[in-house]
Amino acid sequence: MSATLATHTEAPAPALAPRERETLRHIAAGRTYLQTARHMGLSTHTVDAYLRRIRAKLNITNTAELTRVAISLGM
Fold first, then answer.
1. What pLDDT is attached to residue 2?
2. Which of the residues 41, 45, 50, 75 could staple to 23 if both were Cys, CB 3.0 to 4.6 A apart?
């Protein structure tokens, strides 16, 4: 594991709202924005907004890293 990965996973995760956590679980499971939106009863714009907030809270820039963090959090 690289130092960057170790540092990132050791830091405590900021609190995510329940809908943010649910959105993150769907994306980490490989679902598209559209699939996630339909499952959660939201628009794709809302899913995108949740993911932008999650990325900002976790200081993440891409979906691959977002998925890695979700897995490390047990999602």
1. 42
2. 50
Q: Can you give the three-state secondary structure of the chain, one letter per residue?
A: CCHHHHHHHHCCCCCCCHHHHHHHHHHHCCCCHHHHHHHHCCCHHHHHHHHHHHHHHHCCCCHHHHHHHHHHCCC
| Residue 4 in this model has a pLDDT that exceeds 90 | no
* Contact in structure between 13 and 73 (CB atoms under 8 Å): yes
- Dump pLDDT digits (tens) for 9-42: 444 456 889 999 999 999 999 999 999 999 999 9
Chain centroid, CA 65 distance in Å: 9
The number of residues making up the chain comes to 75
> Do residues 44 and 32 make contact, with C-beta atoms less than 8 angstroms apart?
no
